[in-house]
C-alpha cells in the first residue's frame, strides 16, 4: 500500500492539474520526445513570451484530472506528454504549431479550446488565425478605408453643392 504522504502529494498534483485545466482557455498536449534540452528551453521561452506555460505531469495523474472534469483525451495521455496551457485560447496553439514546423520531433496530440475537446485538425485550423495584434491591425485598416471613402464622398458632395 502506498504511503499516506505520497497519496496526498498525488492528490495535490491532480488538483493542480484540474485547476489549470479549468482556468485555461487553451490547452495543448504535445509529445516532446526527440527534442534536446536547448530546444525545450527555447520552446518554454517562446511560450512564456506569449503568456503560456508548459508542464510535464505523470499521465496517470493527468488522466485522473481529465476524468474528474469528464473530458475524454485518452489518446493524449499515452507516452511522454507535456501540457501547454494559457488563458488565451489560440496563443499556445500558434506557438506550438510554429515550433513544430521548425522541429520535426515535436508533435501535437490534441487539446482543449474554451472547454471543448479539439482534434489535431481543429488545432491546425486555429493555428492559422492571425494573432490578436494582427487582427486589430486588420480591423484598423478596414476602418481607415471606410473613413477615407466617406471623406472622399463628402468632399465630392461639397464640391458638387458649391457649383
Report helical residue fraction. 55-70%
> How far from one another are the termini?
97 Å
Largest sheet: 5 strands, antiparallel
Mean pLDDT: 86
Order of helices and strands: HEHEHEHEEHH
**Quick one: CATH superfamily of the largest domain?**
Ribosomal protein L10, N-terminal RNA-binding domain
Q: Strand order, biggest sheet? A: 2-3-1-4-5
Give a brief description.
Helix content is 58%, strand content 15%.
Describe this structure in words.
Helices cover 58% and strands 15% of the residues. The protein is α+β, with helices and mostly antiparallel strands. The chain has 2 domains: 4-129, Alpha-Beta Plaits (2-Layer Sandwich); 131-163. A 5-stranded antiparallel sheet has the order 2-3-1-4-5, with helices on both faces. Strand 4 and strand 5 form a beta hairpin. The chain starts with a helix and ends with a helix.
List keywords for this structure.
about 160 residues; alpha+beta; Alpha-Beta Plaits; 2 domains; five-stranded antiparallel β-sheet; 5 strands
Write the layout of secondary structure elements.
Elements: H1 4-23, E1 26-31, H2 37-49, E2 52-55, H3 59-68, E3 82-86, H4 91-102, E4 107-113, E5 116-118, H5 120-127, H6 132-162
Antiparallel strand pairs: 1-3, 1-4, 2-3, 4-5
Helix pairs in contact: 1-3, 4-5
